[in-house]
Amino acid sequence: MVGNTLVVVARPEWVSGGGPWGSTFKVTLLNLSDEVVVNPVITFKVEAKQVIQNNYGLVWTRSGEVVSGRLVAERNVIPPRASTEFRLSVRGEGQDLGPLPRDFTVNGRPADPPRDSEPPTTPKRVRATLVGSALVTLGWDASTDNVAVAGYRVTYSKVGGGVAQTLSSTRPGITLMGLSAGSEYQVSVVALDVSDNVSGSSDTVKIRTSAAPPDAGDWDVPRAPFVDYTSWPTPRVSEYGREAGLDGFFLGFLVARPDGGARAVSWGGNTTLVDSEDGQSYSGDATVSDYGKRDIEAFRRSGGTVVLSFGGASNVPLEAEETDVATLVATYAAVLRNYGVRHLDFDFEGAFLHDEDAQVRHLAALSQLLAVYPTLKLSYTLPADGAPGSLVGFNDGGVRFLQKLSSAGIEPSLINGLLMEFGQSAPVDALECCVHALQGMHAHVSAAFPRWDAAKVWRRLGACPMFGRHPNGREFTLEHQRGLVEFAREHQLGCLSGWDATRDANQGRLPECERDSGGDLSRCTLTPQQPFDFGRCISAHGVKGPSQEVVAE
Known about the structure:
- The structure is a single chain.
- This protein folds into three domains: about 10-110, Immunoglobulin-like (Sandwich); about 125-210, Immunoglobulin-like (Sandwich); about 225-500, Glycosidases (TIM Barrel), CATH 3.20.20.
- It is built from ten helices and 32 strands.
- The strands form eight sheets. Strands 19, 20, 21, 24, 25, 26, 27, 28, 29 and 32 form a ten-stranded mixed β-sheet that branches.
- α6 (about 430-450) runs parallel beside α8.
C-alpha cells in the first residue's frame, strides 16, 4: 500500500478541550514509509456549516469545504514509521457539530485509511517500566499488521471494583497518571490498525503504585531574580548578591545539547564556555562541568542559594530531545550531584507547552527523581498574562501542564509566572497587568491543586516581571517594582523574581544602555535607574535569614 499511493495516513478523532467552540478534533498523521516526510501540504474537507478555528499544529486556509495547510515549524517533520498531530476547534449550528473531516490528502496523495479487514497481532509482554505514586509507565512488544499498526488502546482499573478507563497511544508504551498511591491496578492492551481493525486483548497484568512522596514544602528562596548565566561578560552572582542585597538567584539556562549524547544537557546549549574573568575554558556539559562553581561557592558562603533553571524561551528542553526516561533521571541526578543543589526550576514556554509526549516524559522522570531526592524543591516558570477579556493567568498550554503535574502526584514548591509582553487588551499600567496575571494564576493553580487552600496557593506563587522596557514598548518601572513588593508582602507571595539581574546590573553603567541609545534589550532595561536598583527593591521581600542550601548527595 505504501509504494506510490499511501505514504501518510490521516486519522481524525474528537477529543476533549474545545472550550466555548464546542469541540476539538485531533488528526494523527502516520508516516507509513521508510523515508522522512518534510513540511507536507495537507488538505481535507469539512462540512459547509462547520466553523473551524486554530487550536494548535496547523497553519491553514479555507476555500468552501476544503481546508489546506502546513504543519507548524516545530512539527513539520514526520520521521519514518512515526507520527505527528494537529488540532482544530469546530463549532456547528446549535448542538450539531457535524462529522469529522474527510477526504484527506498529503502532498497530493490520498491519505484516508484503506479498506482492510485483517486485524493486527495481539500485544505481548505488557510490563511496567517505571512506577510512581500517581503514575505508571508501561511498555509492551509492538504488534504487526498487513498494512500498518495505528496505535493501541490501554484499559485499566483499580483492582477490587474500580471504574475501567481507556487511553490511546500511537507507540508501544504509555504513562498512566492520576492513579491512587499504594494501590493495585489491572491493565490490558489491544492494537488497532489504520482501518480501525482491533486485535485480541493482551494478558491482563497487575501493577501496584508506590507510596505518596512527602510534599517538599513551601519555596524558601523568596528573593531570586533570573541571571542569564552564559551571557558576556560572565555574570557573578557573588557580586550581584552583594551589590543588590539578594540571597537567591535562578541561573539559566540548562538545555538540550545540540550534539546529543548520553547526558545531553549543557549551559546554554554550548559544548564549551569561556569565563571572561579568568579566561579559562570550561565544558558546557552541566553533569560534569566546573563552570560557575567558584562563583556559586562564594555566593553560598555569604548565605546565598542558587536555583538551576532548565529550558527558557529560545531553548530546547531536554525532554524534547531525549526520549528515554531513565536517561533523563540519570542526567538530572548527575546535575544535582555536580552542582550540589536542591532547588531546580523548569522554564517551559512556547512549543514545549504543546508537546504532550515530552511533558509526560518529564513527569515520569521527575516522579522517579523525587523518589531518590524527596526533599528536592521544584519550581515551574510558565508564561502568564494580565489582559482581562483576553487572557488572565496562564495560557491554555500552561493550564494543561499544571493539571498534568497534579495528576502525576508532583507538588511544586513554586509556580512562577513570567510577567512580560502583556496582550493588547491588557491595561496600560504594567503593575495592574501583573496584579491581574497573579490573580488569574491563583485561580488556575487552585483548580489544578484543589487540596491547597487559598493561602498555600499564594505561598507557592512567584512573580517574574521583565525589568524596564519590553519589546512591545510597555515599561515596568521601579515604581511598579515597589508596588509589586507591596502586593507580594500583602499576599505572602512565595517568590519575587525578575528578568533579569544582568540587565539590572548593566543599566546605568554601560554606555550602550543609555535610555535613548536604542540599546539592546537583552543587555539593558532602558529605564531610569542605577545599577541593581530592581534587585534592591526585591531584597525587601520577606525576612532575610540563613541559607537553606543543602548539598545533594
